[in-house]
Amino acid sequence: MRVASRDLRRAIDLLTAEGGAKFARRVARRLYRLVVPRSYAAWIRRYDRPVAPQRLGSDARCGAPPGGSPPTIDLLMPEAGDPAGLAATATSLQRQTAPDWRLLIALGPATPPAALRAASTVAEHDRRIRLVRTAPEPDSADADGFAAAANRLLAEADGSFVALLGAGDALAPDAVAAMQRAVARPDTVLAFSDEDVLRRSRLPWRRAVRADPWFKPDFNPALMLGCDAVGRLAVLRRDRVVAVGGIRPGFCGAEEYDLVLRYTRGLPAAAIRHVPRILCHRPAEVRHPGGWRRVDGAAAARRAAAEHLAAIGTVATLEPGPAGNRVVLAAPRTAPRVSVLVATTGRPAVAARCFHTLLKGTDYQALEVLVLVSEAATADPERAAFLDGLAADARVRLVVGPDRPFNYSEVNNRGAAQATGDVLCLLNDDTEALRPDWLAGLAARVAQPGVAAAGAMLLYPDGTIQHAGVLLGLGGVAGHVGHREPRGSAGPFGRLALEQDVAAVTAACMAVRTEVFRAVGGLDEGLPLAYNDVDLCLRIRRAGWRIVWTPAAELVHHESASLGRHDTAHAIRFAEDVRLMRHRWGPDLDADPYYNANLSLDRAYALAFPPRQRSGGADGPGPVGALTR
């Protein structure tokens, strides 16, 4: 498909370069649509349409209470930028279906004359556009004056909400109306949308094309430490922006990121609303990896994240990563005791690697290892000798259960009942750790406020990814993210490289607070083989706890080497588990808050044709929401 698409583009270039007729152009366009039916351009043509005002009602269209006025949004442009970009932004605003917006443009001593003229021109033709003169910023920490200009605009704004825009940002025709509706609820203090970029077209009859859509997850606290996962368009309550100190100088290139971290600190999840629609189109050259305003904003972003972590009592350092910044958590002052539960058949050929890296290759000291076996394993001479060798280590206890059909949930519940640790680590016997600090990394995550469970990066023996978190709904119930992607791949918008909140993780390697595990009832023994970990995670999240996936803990997983694959060896049981999960969790499985309704549940992070819809439909697609161990 890529080769055909590339060859077709070359043919189009040849036709147009030779002054091809209108007929040739029409043929080329049709051929292109046929060859690339699942492209982003095709998705835009089919599904990316403004929401009709009549679908929302007269007052509801702009989020107004009955008989009231819609929330007012002041759009702040601290840098006038290039004239063409400024004009494009103004034009997109003048095409809005909601008329009650205001644009404030900062003009300072460093504003280029061409930008001054362009700003004056757009302001003359629309009274909703105001020009605000700013003084030079004496503080050298704000080298480009962005913070000073933004704060000056903030002082001049009088709307209930504000949003930052850059010259060249173009808004979808109903962007203002959609965001007014999103922030109309009294408990909403932040709303943000999806975005894409505008690139120069390869086709000479088009000025720019939309590309690289970023269909974001709902607000993701862990992901926000590595990148600006809010981005644009973001609408914030003006009074709260002022209360948290406005835009701070000294964070050149990452001012908006620093603001969002401070602004969202301590907010409940219900106060932050994600509108899963592309409402902002940004110039391609200004959207840098990590989401910083400038390419050199990564260092400032690391300082902002470090200050945020310190403010919430977390000791950590931040390092440059492949798609943002990487969080390195310090070990808790008092390391929690971890009980590692390893259900095993006792076969040395499978389990020897796991126990070797666990007992001799792991640098975590406060641990006990509970080896969960059946009576049949202890009766086999070879396995009994292997188990006796493990039990010679003072940290190891054998937990022997009755000899009956294997039930992963029942076996681990039995081990959890005898565990003495503050944290349980469910671990498959066909895993092997790649780094000695893997368990410390998981324990540190679980020790964070509000986090109950953490999962690891699991790799196949050939080095490709087996698990980078679980995506609800993928393939019907749930599936692993990053399946068969190369190790070290950043993935779409850093998904495989950045730590983040997820809906679920696999129990092949899962750390969970013991008290939470017991409070939610442990693993469901009615799910003996498949999806018991997803079910557990859903109950943990329903109880109000967060679940984090981290690439800081890496293990190789020889998938199902010990017990066989659930979906082949136990097909009937697997089908029953699927039916039970769909019956119990159907709406949740189709509404993963850390995915996006515009993305496919057939293939992770591919575009959805068509997108899934919210029940109300007014805000467009939204919230979404076979796994083998």
End-to-end gap: 33 Å
Q: How would you sum up the global shape?
A: elongated
Mean pLDDT: 88
Total helical elements: 21
The chain-level structural class is: alpha/beta
- Biggest beta sheet attributes: 10 strands, mixed
Strand content: 15-25%
Low-confidence stretches: 1-5, 56-63, 620-629
Provide the helix percentage: 25-40%
Number of strands: 23
Rg estimate, integer Å: 27 Å
Plain-language structure description:
With 629 residues, the chain is α/β, with parallel strands linked by helices. Helix content is 33%, strand content 21%. The chain contains 21 helices and 23 strands. Strands 12, 13, 14, 15, 16, 17, 18, 21, 22 and 23 form a ten-stranded mixed β-sheet that branches. Strands 1, 2, 3, 4, 5, 6, 7, 8 and 9 form a nine-stranded mixed β-sheet that branches. It has a two-stranded antiparallel sheet with strand order 10-11. A hairpin with a 5-residue loop joins strand 17 and strand 18.
Briefly characterize the structure.
Helices cover 33% and strands 21% of the residues. The chain has 21 helices and 23 strands.
Question: Main attributes?
Answer:
single chain, 629 residues, alpha/beta, ten-stranded mixed sheet, nine-stranded mixed sheet, 21 helices, elongated, disordered N terminus, disordered C terminus
Walk me through the topology:
Elements: H1 2-17, H2 22-35, H3 40-47, H4 53-56, E1 73-77, H5 83-94, E2 101-107, H6 113-124, E3 129-133, H7 146-156, E4 161-164, E5 170-171, H8 175-182, E6 190-200, E7 208-214, H9 221-224, E8 234-237, H10 238-243, H11 255-264, E9 272-283, H12 298-311, E10 316-320, E11 325-329, E12 338-343, H13 348-359, E13 367-374, H14 375-379, H15 381-391, E14 396-401, H16 408-418, E15 423-428, E16 431-433, H17 438-446, E17 451-459, E18 465-467, E19 470-472, E20 478-480, E21 500-501, E22 509-513, H18 514-519, H19 532-542, E23 546-557, H20 566-569, H21 571-589
Parallel strand pairs: 1-2, 1-4, 2-3, 6-9, 12-13, 12-15, 13-14, 17-23
Antiparallel strand pairs: 4-8, 5-9, 6-7, 6-8, 10-11, 15-22, 16-23, 17-18, 17-22, 19-20, 21-23
